[in-house]
Amino acid sequence: MKRSVMFAGAAAIAGLLVPLAAATPPAVAGTGVGCTGSDCSVSVWKFVTHTGAWGASGNTVVPINVPPPPCEWNPIGDATSGSQYIIGEFGQVTKQDSLYDVYQSVQQAHQLLAKPEAGTWYELPINPAAGPGGAAECLKLPLFDFVQPGQTPPMPNVPAIDLAEYAYNHMIIPSPQLTVTPAKAFVNLASYAHLTTPGSVKVTAQLGAVNVWVTARPVKTMITASSAGTPYSKCGLDGSKYSSSPPNTAPGTSPDCGVLWHSPTTDGTVTATITWRVTWGGSGGGGVLPRVILADTVGGLRVAEIQSINNGGGN
């Protein structure tokens, strides 16, 4: 991965500046930033700070294909090894010929070699997959940055929608918890569905100067059932409006939210499906993200014939 814009001036003519990543940077040791195989790049997404229902990888949504970030900070070493790399590659750059603060970084590298301190040097190549807009944002930043523990290098401005989609991919929305009452089910009588689900779920995310929030709210509940019953979905977000026995439990009465059984079975199932509407806003933008659909199922329900009970035949 290389910066698409080369340095100009006498230093470049003298061949002192090589394309980025042409030389192998020193290994990073003791910085807490690891490498996978030969790839030591750290996506800027790794520097996102967040709050709310956030997971390392969202476990309840179909991920959005988020556009690649414009740059990827590469850790190139600590105060000693990173400084040696910078000086070795760009030590002869003059202040007049330097772009992207390279001259200033070389001077800082000399200071750190003389008096090392805790931290990590990062190099910022452009991601060629990010397009000209992303490249322009990256070229506003220095080529190198020394980051002390607990700090982060400067971040490029990413589109707010990209950050919102990244947050969406890490959002954890809990599945509904379904219960069915009464505990015993009978042919031509109704079972009622009740749900436990939060009213809304929210996350916030920040990368540099870009801030977004993403909120998911349940908007619809649907009931399905196995072939032994007919489902009814006049549901509130919490399922049936009846917290216990409905006022009319006569045979053949349809539930508002649940199943009316019409055949005996030893393995009846009821499934509640919740649809969540997801919106985002912040940093001058906002809109709607893909809906999330989650479900819970109660299975193994035994549905008995009422007449068999009256005749003493089981329950």
C-alpha Rg (nearest Å) = 30 Å
Q: Return the average pLDDT rounded to an integer.
A: 83
State the low-pLDDT regions, or none. 4-40, 309-315
Report the helical percentage: 10-25%
| Count of spatially separate domains | 2
Number of strands: 14
Query: Largest sheet, described in full?
Result: 6 strands, mixed
Structural class: alpha+beta
Strand order of the largest sheet: 2-9-10-13-14-7
Overall 3D form: rod-shaped
User: Can you write the helix and strand succession as a string?
Assistant: HEEEHHEHEHEEEEEEEEEH
Span from first to last CA? 71 Å
Strand composition percent: 25-35%
Number of helices: 6
What does this structure look like?
There is one protein chain. By secondary structure, the protein is α+β, with helices and mostly antiparallel strands. It folds into two domains: 148 residues, no CATH class; 134 residues, no CATH class. Helices cover 16% and strands 33% of the residues. A six-stranded mixed sheet has the order 2-9-10-13-14-7. A four-stranded antiparallel sheet has the order 1-3-4-5. Strands 6-8-12-11 form a four-stranded antiparallel sheet, with no helix packed on it. Strand 13 and strand 14 form a beta hairpin.
